[in-house]
Design goal:
Blueprint (H helix, E strand, L loop, with lengths): L36 H13 L5 H4 L2 H6 L2 H15 L2 E7 L6 E8 L2 E9 L5 E11 L4 H9 L4 E8 L7 E3 L5 E2 L5 H13 L8 E3 L19 E3 H10 L3 H11 L1 H10 L14 H9 L2 H9 L2 H9 L8 H7 L12 E2 L1 H14 L3 H6 L7 H4 L2 E11 L2 E10 L4 E9 L7 H13 L1
Antiparallel strand pairs: 1-2, 2-3, 3-4, 5-6, 5-13, 7-10, 8-9, 11-12, 12-13
Helix pairs in contact: 4-17, 5-17, 6-8, 6-9, 6-14, 7-8, 10-13
Length: 429
């Protein structure tokens, strides 16, 4: 689960390695007989990706203020590591203008996006939005997944049980981060389908709030909110306070029942079912309490959670605990790729359909990756050393597919961009 200093596992997989920057006032770009300024800069970007040019010579000061030279070098290495060297500018739609769509041919992809130059002739915008694979393959993708340090699990397959397109360690129990919130959504959506609750039921936001990400931790005390609002924020922006409010409404027992009934292969790993605040306070609290929780049985763990507010910890104390290296990855929420696939089958059978609308608010995929899919539902999660991306995708024939990528490393943090790029390659297949 991503700690509150960054968006908690919302992990919006809009694969935009370089942000669209506010452009300086643009002047018409003069065209020489041989090459325009934009054409020259586009060629230099190709050289830059290959380490044969310097960002300071190509990008404007405004660009470098948002993406430093070192950050760009890191991004370039990640992209060329996935797609090979940049070979040439494939197309530049408006070479005589200050801004144009661009396609760059790489060894294993065509990178597409936009490029722009300002009045000083330097690049003030570079936004690569899609990477269309060229000569990519399942074998190459799986080789790159296997090379990631730590433990990695992946699964891409139709939901109906047909043979997977990609599969690696799909039965391994992996720490999920905020992807666990799918189990909360599934429980709520089943109770709505059964008539026990309605999406427009109103509850009062509790005084005890979780830590960011999200926004509800800053909402007024005793604010009335609907269950739909809580669910929307829990999934789309991974709001932790919304999540804990729903767990309070539903009860731990109901969510634990969903774990069992959906076919989770080891539901005891998630019992008692923690709230997000529980996890933060356990890992930021005393070593004695954390170790007692690790070693306790379900009843002993529940007793610890019931006294979790003592001593009281500040936002700064919790923030500091999650600002560095991985910490206690065995105190988390767990599921295998096979478990998450089983959860989606369970939801298709038991959940009120509006749950799938909730999952689609943040699709976690860029425009290129969305092509060919009629529906994309997404939830991701992370904390230091933990990263998970989980999609439910429906193709144009109405057939559901599941893509799960999980990466755990207790020794070091994991690279969001590296797994993002692999996810894009899989979706492009």
């Amino acid at each position: 689960m991503k700690h509150f200093a960054k968006p908690l596992a919302a992990i919006a997989l809009l694969i935009t390695p370089l942000p669209a920057l506010a452009q300086a006032e643009e002047a018409p770009v003069a065209q020489s007989a041989e090459q325009t300024v934009l054409e020259m800069r586009a060629d230099e970007v190709v050289a830059l990706f290959n380490g044969n040019a310097e960002p300071e010579d190509i990008f404007s000061a405004a660009f470098l203020a948002q993406v430093s030279a070192d950050q760009f070098r890191t991004i370039a290495k990640q992209i060329t590591g996935q797609f090979g060297s940049a070979l040439a500018v494939e197309t530049l739609d408006n070479p005589a203008g200050p801004r144009s769509a661009i396609a760059i041919r790489m060894e294993r992809a065509i990178a597409k996006g936009t490029i722009g130059v300002g009045a000083d002739g330097k690049v003030n915008e570079l936004l690569l939005q899609t990477f269309d694979p060229v000569d990519d393959s399942v074998a190459k993708i799986e080789t790159d997944l296997e090379a990631l340090p730590g433990e990695v699990s992946w699964w891409f397959a139709p939901l109906d049980g047909s043979a997977p397109v990609l599969s690696g360690n799909p039965e391994d129990q992996m720490a999920l981060g905020s992807t666990f919130k799918l189990y909360v959504l599934a429980t709520l959506a089943r109770e709505v389908a059964e008539g026990k609750r309605a999406w427009n039921d109103t509850v009062t936001l509790p005084d005890t709030r979780s830590f960011p990400s999200g926004m509800m931790q800053d909402w007024p005390g005793n604010a009335p909110v609907t269950l739909m609002t809580l669910a929307n924020l829990m999934i789309s922006i991974s709001d932790n306070t919304a999540t804990d409010a729903l767990i309070d409404v539903l009860g731990r027992d109901a969510i634990e029942a969903t774990l069992v009934e959906s076919g989770h292969s080891d539901p005891a790993l998630n019992m008692p079912f923690m709230k997000t605040r529980d996890m933060f306070l356990l890992k930021a609290g005393t070593d004695d309490r954390l170790n007692a929780y690790r070693e306790g049985d379900t009843g002993e763990r529940l007793s610890i959670l019931e006294s979790i507010e003592t001593p009281v910890l500040s936002l700064d104390e919790v923030s500091a605990a999650f600002a560095g290296d991985p910490i206690a990855l065995d105190v988390e929420w767990f599921a295998s790729a096979a478990d998450l696939s089983a959860l989606f089958r369970f939801m298709r059978e038991t959940a009120d359909p509006r749950a799938f609308e909730v999952m689609a608010i943040n699709s976690g995929a860029n425009e290129g990756a969305r092509e060919g899919w009629d529906y994309i539902g997404y939830k991701g999660g992370s904390e230091p050393g933990v990263l998970n991306f989980t999609w439910l995708l429906t193709d144009e024939a109405g057939r559901d597919h599941v893509l799960v990528l999980s990466w755990n490393n207790p020794e070091a943090n994991v690279d969001l961009s590296a797994l993002n790029l692999i996810a894009m390659r899989i979706l492009a297949l």
